[in-house]
Design goal:
With 260 residues, the protein is of the alpha/beta class. It is built from 10 helices and 6 strands, in the order αβββααβααβαβαααα. The chain has a 6-stranded mixed beta sheet with strand order 1-4-3-2-5-6. β5, α6 and β6 form a beta-alpha-beta unit. The chain starts with a helix and ends in an 11-residue tail after the last helix.
Length: 260
């Protein structure tokens, strides 16, 4: 994966994709959708799709893809490399959503919650595949929120495609497992190579898993809170964990408007 665009600007969103295999423009394809990094207070959330012809689904299954959460980092990297090698029939695309984008969306005057952001990102990736000429006829999605509501929305958006939304789809459908691996590999790489826009003294990159209940993550947050400006943009400041630390460690600021 080429993350140079993300490294140049990690304040918004970044889309990456593989070349589209020629066979995917000719034969009916199945497409899976999954994400990585929905829960952490640190780093981006990554949404991914993976697709292949229905006629080659058995070949994808033969790779022994699985839910990325059940695999070690080395196993995920190996499987992603294998999917790259099999680029004649497997394609992928992903959206990297920065912590800054997530936080400003959730805290804006017009609220844009994480579920809506997730749904819209998934829709955008499916549409991206269609725009690239992939002959998508089936879509399998790991749910966010109620699967029935999510499935109905996707089915209305893509009426000619058979849509299935289920909890734990990444463990049920190999094409969703493959998307899960793409998303997790991308998030791990983005976090590991994160370019901090702030000039931080004594930057500690030992921030643990990034999840709110991780003691290492909590220590890192308390260490890198700035009393006036808050956290580096690596932090999702809309998360309650971050807000609680700001309330305790940061200075209170009173905003007022002078009227002439």
């Amino acid at each position: 994966m080429d993350f140079r665009e993300l490294e140049r600007d990690n304040m918004g969103r970044c889309r990456l994709n593989s070349p589209v295999p020629a066979v995917c423009r000719k034969e009916p394809c199945v497409l899976g959708v999954d994400e990585a990094g929905r829960g952490p207070v640190l780093g981006p959330m990554v949404y991914a799709i993976c697709y292949c012809p229905l006629s080659r689904l058995a070949d994808l299954e033969a790779l022994k893809v699985a839910d990325s959460k059940t695999l070690s980092e080395s196993e995920r990297d190996r499987l992603f490399a294998k999917m790259e090698e099999d680029g004649d029939f497997v394609g992928w695309a992903l959206d990297v959503l920065s912590p800054n984008l997530i936080s400003t969306s959730m805290l804006g005057r017009v609220k844009y919650n994480l579920n809506s952001l997730s749904h819209d990102t998934a829709v955008g990736l499916v549409q991206h595949a269609l725009d690239q000429g992939v002959k998508v006829v089936q879509v399998f999605v790991d749910t966010v929120g109620l699967p029935e509501t999510y499935q109905e929305r996707l089915q209305q958006r893509f009426p000619s495609i058979e849509v299935t939304v289920k909890a734990k789809a990444d463990a049920l459908y190999p094409v969703v497992s493959a998307a899960s691996i793409c998303a997790k590999v991308a998030r791990d790489q983005a976090v590991k190579n994160w370019q901090f826009v702030e000039k931080l003294q004594d930057l500690d990159t030992n921030y643990g898993s990034g999840y709110p209940n991780d003691p290492k993550t909590k220590v890192w947050l308390r260490k890198h809170v700035e009393p006036v400006f808050g956290f580096p943009q690596f932090v999702r400041f809309s998360w309650r964990t971050a807000q609680s630390i700001l309330e305790k460690e940061a200075e209170s600021i009173l905003w007022w408007q002078h009227c002439a």
